[in-house]
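seq as requested:
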Amino acid sequence: MGYIYKNITGSDATLLEKVNYKTVYNNMTLCNTHLTDSVDISIYFRDITVEPGPSYNEDSDTNTVKTPILYYIIRNVNIPVGATLVLDKTYFLNLKYKMYVQLSAAGSTVSVILN
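struct tokens:
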């Protein structure tokens, strides 16, 4: 079983890893490492589907719209200062999508361990 260790800062979505079919992750630990602020955190799988655009031509896919589809594990869960959230006995196995973590504020900092 592999481990992923990642320190995340800021409010941009951060790719953890494309989850591999050879590895099953059993739990995730998320620690708010900011000194003074709580953080709201979302974890999700992301897929991009391609849909016809306004001038779609079946012979060419040049006029297509890419729409992200998000499958949330948790959404906007608050972690107080100095606290750790453990998602235990949750199996993260997905063959197709990439897993992302997104924090609520630009100054937020979280340490993530996925094992």
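DSSP finds no helices and eight strands in the chain.
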